[in-house]
UniProtKB/TrEMBL annotation:
Keywords: Hydrolase. It comes from Streptomyces luomodiensis. SUPFAM superfamilies: alpha/beta-Hydrolases. It comes from the Bacteria. One of its GO terms (molecular function) is hydrolase activity. The keyword Metal-binding does not apply. Residues 1-20 are annotated as: Disordered. It holds the Pfam family Abhydrolase_6. This is Alpha/beta hydrolase. Residues 25-293 form the AB hydrolase-1 domain. The keyword Hydrolase applies.
Length: 298
């Protein structure tokens, strides 16, 4: 044995690397967005010791198909060209969420978070596989427990009385097979209305980066396909609703209506309600506050 070894005996090395987080958040984006919308919130969750997985729904993300004239001068045929997403079904979107849930089931607690129109795919996924979800969080997102289609709620007086952005849609959604907007528009008035509807508390300079990452098409099936939830499956999962108090896209009155109707239809686990200040997009305007709301009490 060498003198060095005798003087300094080897100390067993312990593996100090942290194990997997007890809780993982599976994050489902809303219309025209993608997994990237959650990046700032994921960093804030990581600082709190929470794991997360952001999902790209089919037809979204960096591989999302674009209308052929979208980036051409004058954007030819943008209001009339049929969407490549016209045949995409809500079942396919829910399937992507179920796949993501299965991939993280090793964590002790799986929290499924949905934003806006993403509530459709997330809710259907929870109905299909409630054993994969320990908690549902709706961030100003569609809850189909009271009415089966997001379109049913979007046509309600609670929404139409004060909502902004109704003039942002291009063409006939049914003919296009998608609800189409134009984030790449050269019209400053259109761009400002887009910001005021969805991101009003995000400065215009910052919104310029956010809007260029948006996709123009939301598959027609997402807000129009009926979803049948059951008390024994979706209704068995504890749930939280994070209200956006100054939301101009999914109004506070509509959020409250969905909460009340869901609790009446599925009373076993009524919503725990948390309210955040600001717009429809807290992941852009206040990701730290959003992460705190998501991790509160955990």
């Amino acid at each position: 044995m060498s003198s060095t070894s005798a003087t300094h005996p080897e100390t067993p090395v312990s593996d100090s690397r942290p194990g997997p987080s007890d809780t993982v958040f599976v994050l489902v984006h809303g219309a025209w967005h993608a997994s990237w919308q959650w990046a700032s919130t994921q960093r804030a969750l990581a600082r709190r010791g929470a794991a997360s997985l952001a999902v790209d729904l089919p037809g979204h993300g960096f591989d999302a198909p674009l209308p052929s004239g979208y980036h051409l001068p004058g954007q030819p045929d943008l209001a009339t060209e049929k969407s490549a997403l016209a045949g995409l079904t809500l079942e396919e979107c829910a399937g992507a969420v179920v796949t993501a849930l299965r991939s993280v089931r090793r964590h002790r607690k799986v929290v499924l978070v949905s934003h806006s129109a993403g509530g459709a795919a997330a809710s259907l996924a929870a109905e299909r596989a409630p054993e994969l979800v320990d908690e549902l969080v709706h961030l100003s997102s569609f809850v189909p427990a009271g009415r089966p289609r997001f379109a049913d709620y979007l046509a309600s007086p609670e929404q139409t009385a004060t909502v902004r952005g109704q003039g942002l849609m291009l063409g006939d959604p049914e003919a296009l097979g998608a609800f189409r907007i134009n984030p790449f528009s050269a019209d400053p008035d259109y761009v400002e209305e887009l910001r005021l509807a969805y991101y009003h508390d995000v400065p215009a300079a910052s919104f310029a980066r956010w809007r260029h990452a948006l996709s123009p098409d939301l598959p027609f099936a997402v807000p129009t396909t009926p979803i049948a939830l059951t008390r024994e499956r979706w209704g068995s999962v504890p749930r939280t609703f994070i209200r956006c108090a100054e939301d101009r896209a999914c109004t506070p009155a509509l959020q409250d209506l969905m909460i009340a109707e869901a609790d009446a239809a599925m009373p076993d686990h009524p919503f725990t309600v948390v309210t955040l200040p600001g717009s429809h997009s807290p992941f852009a305007a206040r990701p730290d506050e959003l992460a705190a709301a998501l991790t509160g009490g955990r």
